[in-house]
Amino acid sequence: MNFCKKNDNALFFSSVNEIPNTIWDVLNCAENKYFSKDFLASIEKNHSKINFIYVVLIDDKKQPKAFASIQIVDFYLNSVDNNFEDFISKLKTVARKLHIFPDKKPLKLLICGNTFVSGEHGIFIKKNNDKKIIIKELAKAILHFVNVDKHLKIDAFLLKDFINESLFIADELKDYSYNAFSVEPNMVLQIDGNWKIFDDYLAAMKTKFRVKAKKAIQLSATIQIENVTLENIANQLPKMTELYKKVATNAAFNLGDFNLATYKDFKEKLGENYILKTYWLEDKMIGFMSGIINQNSLDAHFVGIDYHLNREFAIYQKMLYNYIEIAINKNLKTINFGRTASEIKSSVGAEPQDLTMYLRHKKSITNKILKLFLQRVQPTPFHQHFPFKTINLNEKH
Fold this sequence. Notes:
Order of helices and strands: EEHHEEHEEHEHEHHEHHEEEHHEHEH
Structural class: alpha+beta
Number of strands: 14
Radius of gyration: 22 Å
Protein name: BioF2-like acetyltransferase domain-containing protein
Shape: globular
Distance between the termini: 64 Å
């Protein structure tokens, strides 16, 4: 059901298509693909089980000044793998002992951010606005919306993936009973401006890592790569979905299953800015990779891998090097690899970018218990590699 609700300084919409074009024009946020109408509409269209809410904050003159993307999902505690980082496995134990979270019934979780992508993709703020005030107004607007709409029955609120530079703003959420905790970092590779071709990247590596890279390239030499287009995507989606599910099943924690039919909309609306490739051994698809070019970055999205063949043919490593080659060829500045497989991503040069989430349970007593628990949460440690040669700053150029 579509609606437009409002309070004194916020408008609420249940579909991105209900937001008037005048609001998009004033916000002027589409340069960031994650806040473009096309990107958001594609996600919304293909995920009918998720309840989407969009918040537009307005100023005293009723002009839009900020935008927030919200998804409401059913989160089953039982769906979380016991091997996941200590945070979730301990939370399950505490939750069951104290009966603070439903065991069989799903937890109704309101998420501000993008359910399917790591990073700060939930809140857009126009320039020349006080970001601390905006974050407070957003917290109040979300609470107002939930209190007014009795059908929602939200159990908990999650604002996700703030980088360290944003914490002085996001920490304002603590005044609204949100609890901060660290999660697995986003692995980021800075593209050196001197890398004009992929061989320049390899040349920048220490011998040990360059040998490893060349071995992976050799193992994967027989793999053929095919660009996914609007003409061939229909034939490829079933096998891509099968491969994606293998990766998703291995993942310890998912807020939601991604519907790969979304890729068709991405290719239609984002064109060359959406990267989608499949990997083949003769006539057998053994993997796929996806990603978006957003401003000066290439953001890796989902991949699919035939794990039985991964070690023999270095499929995943080939994908990582393909992301790097694409970024170099397109003169991009960074690659955001996301927050899984941190160690292998560090071996190709990515470094961790800390991320913080803010969680609040609707019940105050439960929230206090949660606060004590979250204070002890730390991301799973991993071995950080440093594959590049150190630069002697005293060298003369």
